[in-house]
Amino acid sequence: MKMVRRGSMVPMLFAVLLLALKGAAFVAAEGEETCSGIVPMKRRSEVVSIADFGGVGDGQTVNTAAFERAVSRIEQRNVPGGTLLYIPGGVWLTGAFNLTSHMTLFLAKGAVIKATQDTSNWPLIDPLPSYGRGRELPGGRYMSLIHGNKLKDVIITGENGTIDGQGEKWWNIWRQKTLLFTRPGLLELMHSTDIIISNVVFQNSPFWNIHPVYCSNVVVRNVTVLAPYDSPNTDGVDPDSSSNVCIEDCYMSTGDDLVAVKSGWDEYGVAYGRPSSGITVRRITGSTPFAGFAVGSETSGGVENVLAENLNIFKSAIGIHIKTNTGRGGFIKNITVSGVTLDNVRKGLRITGKAGDHPDDRYDPNARPVVGGLTIKNVRGTVIQQPGTIEGIKNSPFTQICLSNVKLRVTGPKQMPWVCNDVSGGALEVQPSPCTELTSTNGMSFCTDAL
Fold it and tell me: For 257-358+365-451, CATH number?
C-alpha cells in the first residue's frame, strides 16, 4: 500500500484510506435489495491529496491546473490498484476537468468542489453522436464540470462533500436567450464502465446533473441532488444509451425530471442505435416541477427492461412520465413501475406520444416509436388533480399498458378524469375508474401475468 506522505496530512489521509478500503456505508433496510454487487467498491493502493498538486481550498484560488496535474499524475503512474484523490474540507474553486481510469475522487466532510463563474472561457466539446448537436443549440456543447471518456473503474464518493455548479449565471444566460452552446452539466461520463457515484451532494448544476452516456455497469447510491425549483433543465440522473445501471437511495429536489432514462434524439439516435437497458431505480424521494420518474423523451435508440420501484414523489407536476414523439423511432418496452407514493402531484401518470422537440428538420416523420409492455402497479396518491393521461400515436397505438392496484385520491377544484386514446391494455383495481380503453377483459393475461 502506497501513500504520499506530506507532514500533517498523513494521519488524515490514512484515516480516509481506511474508509475507502471498507467502502461507503451503503446499508439498505433488512430484506431490501441493493445494487452493491453490480460494481464492487475498490481498494486503492495509494492516496494523494489535491493540496499536493498546489490546490488551495480558500474559495478564491482557481484550482483547475491543480486538478489537471493530479489526474495526469494518476494516469501516468497507473499504480496497480489505483489511486484515491483526496479533497479535504474547504472550497475548491475550479473550471472543468477530466477524470482518468482506476481512480477515486473522494470528497471529505466539508469539501466543496465549486465551478468558477468564468462562463466565457468554458471549454467546448463535440456533440454526442446520438444527438447530432447540442441538446439546446446546434454545434458543440460546454464540457461538464467533471468529465470522463473511455474510462474504467472510476469512483466518486466521500463523506457527503459537495459538487457545486454555481448554475445561476448559466440559468440567466439561458433565460436571456444569449446562450451560445448547450450548457454544461456537473458530471458526465462517456463510453465508460464500472462506475460508482455515492455519498456526494450535487447542487446548482447549470444543466443535467449526472449523465452517464454510452456507459455500462453504473451505480448511483446515497446521492443528494439539489437545485432551485425554477432552475431550467436541472435533471437529477439521466442514464443515456447505457446498460446495467442502478440508481437507489437518493434524495433529489430539482427543476426538472428527477430520473430520466434516455437513448438519443431522432435520426441521430436511430443511426447510433444504442438502447438503454437493464436500468433499476429504487427508493428515490424528491420533488420537481416536472416528473419524478421519466422515460424519454429522447428514446430513439430504444429503452427496455427498466424497473422503478419504491418511489416517493411529492409537490410535483407528474409522478410517472413515459414520453416520446412521432419522428423519434426507437422503442419503449418492458417497463415496470411499482410501489409509488404520490403526494400533492398534479397528474399521477402520463404516457404520451406527443412530447419533446426535434433536433432539426431532417428527422423522418414516419419514424414512429413502438411502445408496449408498460406495467404500472401498486401506486398510492393523495392530493392529485388528474389521475393520468395515456395518449398513443395515431396508426401506431401503444399496446399492453397494464395498470394494477393504482389508487389515486383526486381532490381540489380542478378534478379531471383519466384521458386515453390510441392505446390498448388492461386495468385492475384502479381508482378513479380507468378509461374504457383499459377496461376490456379480452387478452388481459399479459397484465395478470405481470403482477
Answer: 2.160.20.10
